[in-house]
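__Protein archive entry__

___
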Amino acid sequence: MKLSFLFIVIIAFSACNNQKNPEITTKTETEDHTLKLNGTWEMIGYYNYVDNKVTDSFRTNDGFRQVKMYTDKKVMWSKNVPSDSSEWFGYGNYNVHENELNETLEYGSEMMRRIIEEKKEFNYELVLEKDKFSQIEIDDDGNRLYSENYKRIE
């Protein structure tokens, strides 16, 4: 009798320890894995799209570097193209809403300043993962044109 009682207690105890509350686990995992752009990112390549499907992909050339840094509300980026003596950088604000990235530049290098005079606001579709993201240029009809693809470096 004592052996049967002990056996039942062990089984019941084991069953209680193996049972998880999925609601609590899911909530904790979601809170711990909030995706943000905060950090430093380096461009690793491009995609070209036709009919919203990737048709070509390109890695960045040797020596080419484009780095973006995001804080909670600010963005700054710089680009180095060894074959081009022009300087490329920009600084401004950004916000993310669902899968949309909006960058509004305040100032930039001489080359970028010319662009900013014509257009200050840049809107992209955003595909964000833990250590990589893509900003996808969309045309007026909502079709994907090309993307810049980045990996997190810090």
